[in-house]
Amino acid sequence: MVQINHERRELSIKVVYYGPALSGKTTNLAALHDRFSSEVRGRLLCVDTKDDRTLFFDLLPIHFESGDFRVKIKLYTVPGQVMHASTRRLVLQGADAVAFIADAQRRATQANNEAWRNMIEDMRANGIDSADTPIVIQFNKMDLPDVRTEAEIRAAEERGNEPVFTSIAIRGEGVVETLHGLLQLTFRHMQRKYGLANILRTDEQGFLDNVFRNVDLRGTSMRRIGPRFERREGVR
Amino acid sequence: MRAGDLLDVRVPLGELLDLRSFREVCNSFADLYRIGVKVIDGSGAVLVDVTSGSNEFCSYLYSNLEGARRCSAVIQEVKYRQLDGPTVVAIPCFSGLRYLAIPLVYEGDVVGRAVFGPFVPQELADLPQAIKELPGLDLANGRRLMAQIRRAQDSTIARVLEHFAGICSVLIFSAYQVYLTSKMHIESVRESYREVVAKAEKLEESLTRLKELDQLKSNFLATVSHELRTPLTSIIGYAEMLIEGLAGPLQEEQLEYLQTIMEKGERLLHLITSILDTSRMESGRLRIEAEPVDVEEALSSAVSSILPQAKKKGLSVAFDCAPTVREAVLDPQRLQQILVNLLSNAVKFTPAGGSITLRARDATTVPARAQGRFDGPESYFVIEVSDTGIGIPAESIDRIFDSFYQVDGSATREFGGVGLGLALVKSYVEAHGGEVTCQSEVGKGTTFRVLLPRTYINPVRGEALLRKYAS
User: Fold this and answer.
1) With bands split at pLDDT 50, 70 and 90, how would you rate the model's confidence at B281?
2) pTM of the predicted structure, to 2 decimals
3) Domain A3-218: which CATH class?
């Protein structure tokens, strides 16, 4: 649930990066951390084991002013390993938007499917209507052999209700685009539910400008998300 | 609590930092740079207040009524003045001294402030007019005390302060990392615990349900056995009367048919009795009626009851009872059933020409669940039934005592029976507080070893005895 504190003039949005183990969720956050200038982001909080597996969650806070409001966007990752099911569910509590990081390699298909089903189930367990929550999918690790082709990925997008992005998070490619796409949907969703534009005294473009003004955008190409993805009713 | 709130929580600086260690660090900073250090949390609470050289000067001013009033106003400024940007702000004191303050930030939120001072600004030549106006103040003394305070340029102090704030920011971040991690850990454990409890409840439910079903099954078996036995007893009885000629003389062929009817009837009766016993055993209603037993006689009687079948198959049967185990106090009928069942089994599974041996001797071990806490082998004796039969595959040994289990469960199996014999043996032995084990080698033979108490003690009586001795 988005937290709007009118008294403190603060608005807090929770974005969760979900996905199978080793799909690159933490790498996404690390890449964003590198791209955002230090004035608008906090430190990247990682709690991991010595072999770099996320233990509880990672957290990258982004903050900026809009109108007379302070906006905080908190990006979290869940731990991907199967055994951390309860932690995953806890981190997902109160999520306003979700980026699903899939592994683009063909052999990861089953793991992707299972994680997706778990995510829908975890959202349901947390009282979050997955059909009414902004979700984007990112196919990561596009530099590896035997990954899905662009055509297959476009077909996957056609089939579903979520915009699909491709990335090589380890090189920082595609991560900003993914967040940009997700925040478009998030703004529209919150505009519909809470009239966000009035609260922040800005439109979607202004909101995105505020977020991405302090980001190193070299080599990125943003995509405008069509209205087809705004309403997600009828999702399985 | 929702984890959304959990991960969003703000902890007062004083709780977040280990204040004792933090104060030590601040003290060493104050010593090193000869300047006072204050750390104040977001609500204005002073967490650290180290002075350096300014004590006497400030106390002297504070001893003056007007000086104290103005001094308090400056302290209010130091604690509460709005700090907007992440930059250093100068807060002047009416005495001409100066404080520098910088906000401490976590995730873009101001969570407190660090303040260095007071120090004497480099450019301050003399006590300012504001002090000279204070009534009754000895200016010479004031100048002497001010000279004890460090004189410095703003830029110098500001650089140290920024550095200090950087260190604080790392400390705050690390403290939050630990705090959030431990919170998350606890919540995860709780969540897992809730899951386990929910699953355990479900299992408990299905266990209760299964127990009910099992009870139903036992009741059903008992009823059916009883209903089957009543007419069967009549059939056998009437056949017997016919054989005895109570209804007139019979031809040889008629007699032969009737004997077959009686023989098969008795087999059926035996089977039904076994089923009834099993169901009684499962419903816990089997009673052990212990009395003195001559073990050698029991062995002899059991052997004689299977001898005809054994002879028919050409098997040799031998038995031997050690003199030390001739007397026991057990349920004689159950003992007989144990022996007969084991012997019949041996006969059934031993090919022609084989041998069967029945032995009773002193025990060398104690059952895993002995009757008495302090029992030793002398309280028990062993009966062994060995054969030179087909043996039992290792993977089946654990299951042979299950009701209705057959090693060869195929429809075309060679040997008869419904698989109750060994289940009954186990039940009877365990009801006595004993133990039955089996060793077997396929193709070589099988040995069943029954460990029985020399004197059966009813568990209820056993407890009564214990109570008696305890009192």
Assistant:
1) low
2) 0.66
3) alpha beta
